[in-house]
Amino acid sequence: MSDSANTPVTVIGLGPMGRAMVGAYLDRGHPVTVWNRTASRADELVARGATRAETPTEAVQASGLVILSLTHYGAMYDILDTVGDALAGRVVVNLSSDTPEATREAGSWLADRGADLLVGGVMVPAPMVGGEGAYVFYSGAEATMDAHRQTLAVIGRPDYRGEDPALAQLWYQAQLDVFLTALSSFAHAAALVGSAGVTAAELAPYSAETFGLASAMLQESASRFDLGDHRDDGANVVMMGATADHIVGASRAAGIDLALPLAVKDHYDRAIAAGHGRDSWTSLFEVIRKPATNR
Description:
By secondary structure, this protein is of the alpha/beta class. It has helices spanning about 15-25, 45, 55-60, 75-80, 100-110, 140-150, 165-195, 200-225, 235-255, 260-275, 285-290, and strands spanning about 10, 30-35, 50, 65-70, 90-95, 115-120, 135-140, 155-160. The protein is elongated, with a radius of gyration of 23 Å. The chain has an eight-stranded mixed beta sheet, with helices on both faces.
């Protein structure tokens, strides 16, 4: 199939992200076929020029490139298991979130039906899809990626991670690990100062500075993780662990949830138990990456 500005595309799943993708393709002149369990979600897109498929089979047959924007991979099986031989010769781009292992299983399932899988993780919220800052992690067969790179670039810059289909999902979940934890930490901090009547709006600019400080530390920290170099740099585990303990104490006194600070404190406790007390805080990496069964 030609990878060009008029390449037909099918999008299955019309939540906010799916609708944003369809909009981006319509804006760029691509013929787009859509399907969603709740058919009314397609109404606005059809009014803009999309074609509504009446069944998943019709949707798959309409295009050689089938993009899935679903809640999880289980939904893919529910939908595509109904289409019979229609998958043969198609490229399925699954942009749904799930575990890396689920993506490998999906690749085998689709291969058995004659389809190729590209796994993707969209790294921007729906309003940014198709915009300058949008990017998407991909993994799967490199030849398949190369054949469809231009078409996929409509929704965001393709960032290809390799042949193993699990890689895009792993990168996607890793980025969300950072993002979700950061947001939870801000919510927790806001609850902590809120116990004294301080508004979250007052805290926000200070937290932004702290996030900036953490961001500035990432590259050096990454080098230490990779090299296993955890020499004390003035922020050793015992010192940082004491701070973690104080956060737990302050949270307990404030009467707010303790799960997040206790999880952080556990990292420091485990590092001390493993003999890293006088090492840099970066030695937490060594205990975090060990399986729970080794604890």
